[in-house]
């Protein structure tokens, strides 16, 4: 079997979780996936696929500033270190291709995971990278990196009925782009509702912790049963129940799929992977974008303007705002059949 290196970025859990359907499809099409990442993304995929080889890549060490308006400045300040990591990542990848007999590469937003000797695909929903007044520059830089890969796979619909909006659909960018349709590891199931609200957290620190503290405080006065998933990947799962709130440090895919299907409403970040999941499961949700992350702010605004899901800034959230959800349609699923055999013809 041909061995394919699957390498998602460790920035929140979204890049890793949307790699799960791709890894399953590789296995179903007689390829042998080799997982490569770092930190929580690697730990999550090791738990999902204990039978697969898992390799550690250099860490980008992406963290958020405590203040939202300092996020872009922090990224600029950290960019020399990031560029060094990408160079090191490329050398490690070139070594792995030889030592592990790799026949192809699927990189989800890891810039250095490519090698001229084997075909490579870059997975991203951001052909346009929003960064405020410097969007034109960040987009051009990202497109330059994408062009170094043989193909660019965009997990979204190609037409106007799409989830990523201006992020994943631009004119004038010449590259081998393939639209995969939305990727989700979940299936919709008709299960009896166990929770009135499911809270799902993820994303880099310290903003994940800030939101956790705020929500746990606000939820004390919530009238209903709450399942609260912190999104902290640890060796052992921990579950606590205090009054109407049941808390988990993390959930594996199957468990989270059940919790989503058993919950009336969802409260989470407006990360793109989460949005693909909610569309697949046709959920009603309230979205709180990560402060300072332009992409999540754009997506939250997009779905609010389309009357799909309400949203607000992190510091503004009050528990009464969840009542707004009933005035919104919720996410809908548009059927899309991806021909993985044809897609994997690259390898």
């Amino acid at each position: 079997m041909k061995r394919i290196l699957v390498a998602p970025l460790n920035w929140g859990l979204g890049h890793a979780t949307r790699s799960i359907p791709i890894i399953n499809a590789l296995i179903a099409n007689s390829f042998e996936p080799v997982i490569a990442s770092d930190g929580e993304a690697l730990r999550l995929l090791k738990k999902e696929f204990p039978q697969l080889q898992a390799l550690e890549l250099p860490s980008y060490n992406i963290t958020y500033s405590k203040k939202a308006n300092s996020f872009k400045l922090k990224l600029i300040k950290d960019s020399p270190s990031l560029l060094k990591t990408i160079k090191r990542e490329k050398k490690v990848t070139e070594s792995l291709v030889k030592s592990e007999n790799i026949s192809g590469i699927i990189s989800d937003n890891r810039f250095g995971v490519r090698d001229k000797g084997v075909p490579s695909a870059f997975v991203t929903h951001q052909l346009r990278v929003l960064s405020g007044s410097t969007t034109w520059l960040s987009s051009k830089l990202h497109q330059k990196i994408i062009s170094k890969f043989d193909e660019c796979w965009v997990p979204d619909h190609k037409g106007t009925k799409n989830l990523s909006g201006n992020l994943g659909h631009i004119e004038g960018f010449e590259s081998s782009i393939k639209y995969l349709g939305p990727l989700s590891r979940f299936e919709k199931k008709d299960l009896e509702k166990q929770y009135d609200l499911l809270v799902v957290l993820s994303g880099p620190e310290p903003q994940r912790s800030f939101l956790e503290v705020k929500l746990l405080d606000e939820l004390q006065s919530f009238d209903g049963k709450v399942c609260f998933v912190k999104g902290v990947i640890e060796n052992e799962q921990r579950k606590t129940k205090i009054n109407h709130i049941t808390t988990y440090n993390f959930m594996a895919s199957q468990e989270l799929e059940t919790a989503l299907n058993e919950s009336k409403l969802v409260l989470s970040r407006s990360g793109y992977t989460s949005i693909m999941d909610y569309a697949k499961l046709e959920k009603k949700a309230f979205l709180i974008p990560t402060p300072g992350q332009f992409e999540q702010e754009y997506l939250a605004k997009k779905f609010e303007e389309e009357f799909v899901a309400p949203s607000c800034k992190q510091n503004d959230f009050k528990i009464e705002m969840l009542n707004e959800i009933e005035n919104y349609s919720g996410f809908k699923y548009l059927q899309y059949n991806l021909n993985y055999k044809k897609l994997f013809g690259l390898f």
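The mean pLDDT is 92. The first helix runs from residue 14 to 17.
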